[in-house]
Structure of MHYT domain-containing protein:
Amino acid sequence: MTEVHHFTYGIFNPIAAYLLAFMGSFFGLLCTARARDARNRSRRNRWLGIAAFAIGGGAIWLMHFAAMLGFEVPASPVRFDIALTLASLACAVLAVGLGLLIVGHGRRSVPKVVAAGALTGIGVIGMHYTGMAGMSVAGEMRYDTALVIASGVIAIVAASVAHWFAISVRGWARISGAAAIMAIAVCGMHYTGMAAMSVHLTPAGLDDVHGIRPLTMIVPITLITAATIVGVALSALQAMTEEEFTDGAGTPRRGAHAGSSNPWSLKQASMPATGRRPSPRPVPLRSTSNS
């Protein structure tokens, strides 16, 4: 068994990983709070989908690979396979999305939260070990069974708590506290899974190391982070705008903008139905009498 480093850049990696987990959880919980206020199923599913990308893509997947940038095997190069890395992203988003769909509809209940937490937790475990399978070193990676089971238990418990928060918390303070707890659980699961791994080098293994360098991952991670933030923000703004100008059935609200096909056109909304401006009425002149 060779030496491995999990904190190559010191405290930077765990802090960056925690901040990504916190921000993804925070935005995801904001979206689930909006989903609970949605008036129809399609709008609720839309908010839950945005939350799945925020939590699965941001709080879990981005956190994982931000932490992995600090992983190093001094006696071997470390490379990442792009296909398996992207597969782990899809696994995280789908697992969180399915769990949110389970708890996001119907009455709130503990069995639904437990079922959704188990499903999402298994998906998060799949994300982690799929990402680890996409990592190539000059040798073999082995895992301690007890720590792997411990990481799985943490993932399922953390996912269950996250789903309970998703259908319960409101307000900035409570959402911030819930996001902080979720970020601790996600990071705890990751580093427990990493502690389970050991590397056993082989003399001829250097020729089998293929993929991209860890630091090169900064570019796709940055692009995916920016795309996720922009996509989540635009989707949320569009959904909020539609909810502002339409009622629960998706029809325009009665009011100042109801007569206009373009809700932002104040000029068109202020025009009468005939399309012509009313002519001003003549002001009668008062007669003056000479005293």
